[in-house]
Design goal:
single chain; mainly beta; 4-stranded antiparallel β-sheet; 1 helix; 9 strands
Length: 125
């Protein structure tokens, strides 16, 4: 039986990459515990040149990621712990498995317990 050849990877498209968010959460929480700031972050996907950026952020209880600006669309996927997203007078609590949609403008993220989130930002172009 003959099999059709696999389609060629389109130009500019990398092969699929698989990452363990569970392992990255564990690693970033350990780094946050030893950091004087009580936080740690690792870019999981994208970067300064990319329109889509995903960053795993670990915060010890009581730490705040102050005044970040959503210059496009952004979400916070809670992977571990308990966080509070604050924008103006409004706030939303997030627990593991919750996906918080970040409102346009300035927001902050408070770790009410030692936490890890996946911050996804699609930059406006």
């Amino acid at each position: 039986m003959m099999h059709a050849p696999a389609p060629a990877t389109p130009p500019g498209v990398d092969l699929v990459q698989k990452l363990s968010l569970t392992a990255l959460v564990r690693q970033q929480l350990q780094l946050a515990e030893t950091a004087s700031s009580g936080r740690s972050a690792h870019t999981v996907h994208g970067g300064h040149e990319a329109a889509l950026r995903q960053t795993l952020v670990a915060l010890l209880a009581g730490q705040v990621m102050e005044d970040f600006v959503a210059n496009g669309e952004a979400t916070v996927h809670v992977l571990h712990g308990h966080v509070r997203l604050v924008s103006g007078a409004d706030s939303w609590d997030g627990l593991p498995g919750d996906l918080l949609i970040v409102p346009a403008g300035r927001a902050s993220l408070e770790a009410t317990g030692t936490s890890a989130v996946l911050l996804t930002v699609a930059l406006a172009r």
